[in-house]
Amino acid sequence: MSFQTCGEKLTTMSEQQNGNLQDQPWAELKLPELLFTDPVRGVHADVENEWDLLRQSACQIAAGRALWKHVVHDPLAELLAGEAFLRGFYEKIKKDRLNNAQEVSGVILAIRTMWFDAKIEAALDSFYGGGAQVVILGAGMDARAYRLNCLKESDVFEVDFAEVLQMKTTIIQAATESTNYCQHAMTTAKSLHSVAADITDHDWLQKLQKSGFIPKKNTVWVLEGILYYLSHSNAMEVLKIIADSCTIAHTVLLADFMNKPSITLSSSLFHFYSDWPDHLLPSLGFSDVKLSQIGDPDAHFGLLHDPLNLFNKLRSLPRSLQTHPDDGTPCCRLYLVKASGSPN
């Protein structure tokens, strides 16, 4: 069994892409048989009937990765998503393609996933001496520990609600017993630790350390699709804790931030925002901050060549604008940010 490195994977995808979303190899939805076995069906029934929207969003995101499999390599995503979320996301994509939409549902999710994949590998390559740790806060249905070869020398810590981690464990166990999925259910990371914790509580860092996290080791903190679900005070507390680690170890933060207009997309779910995360993070203690927007050279992966695409139109406008001067619509931006710092 062989695994591609992050860089090899992105090169392969670049060769396959032609920039036209309508020409991408979308396949008809084919659900794997494993989804309909009793253990897998049972946990997904709990997700649909008992989980709140925040927890369900983890499966929704997995569905997006599964349906963008022509650019995102995540073989476990369809199992982690479940039938209901796969069908729902597929219908959105089908509708967008029928309407010749310039932004097909899930494109921003696919780009975000590939950006994080690439930046994780680059961050690990920047460390000297090995022994790096990768902490994924609000891990949800993230399967990087099973699919990224660049984690082979890293200890990975997934932090999330206990029921979310338990659900993932059940799915992965079912995959290990399936001839079609067993090879994908083997971790590529040096080690994988599940940390049941709510990052809005004050004891999540202690729980992380009890699981084997070593504060003095080089660490990559991955906050993908999580900050804007937090209150302002909770988000700032998490960012300050990570920023403080820069004083004792080489620390890299990878995170996405919504600007203020973006949180209006779902006022019931989104709360924290930052219009200028590249100003915020240095004030907390990070010494080097680099910001990208969807569509920037390191954040399009051949998927957003159309100049009339929403994201390209926003990139040409000053970031200070809250509404578009042409039609008065909110300028909803998603910032992809890499921040780092070290004692030296």
From TrEMBL:
<keyword id="KW-0489">Methyltransferase</keyword>
<dbReference type="InterPro" id="IPR011610">
    <property type="entry name" value="SAM_mthyl_Trfase_ML2640-like"/>
</dbReference>
<dbReference type="Pfam" id="PF04072">
    <property type="entry name" value="LCM"/>
</dbReference>
<comment type="similarity">
    <text>Belongs to the UPF0677 family.</text>
</comment>
<protein>
    <submittedName>
        <fullName>S-adenosyl-L-methionine-dependent methyltransferase</fullName>
    </submittedName>
</protein>
<dbReference type="GO" id="GO:0032259">
    <property type="term" value="P:methylation"/>
</dbReference>
<dbReference type="InterPro" id="IPR029063">
    <property type="entry name" value="SAM-dependent_MTases_sf"/>
</dbReference>
<dbReference type="GO" id="GO:0008168">
    <property type="term" value="F:methyltransferase activity"/>
</dbReference>
<dbReference type="InterPro" id="IPR007213">
    <property type="entry name" value="Ppm1/Ppm2/Tcmp"/>
</dbReference>
<keyword id="KW-0808">Transferase</keyword>
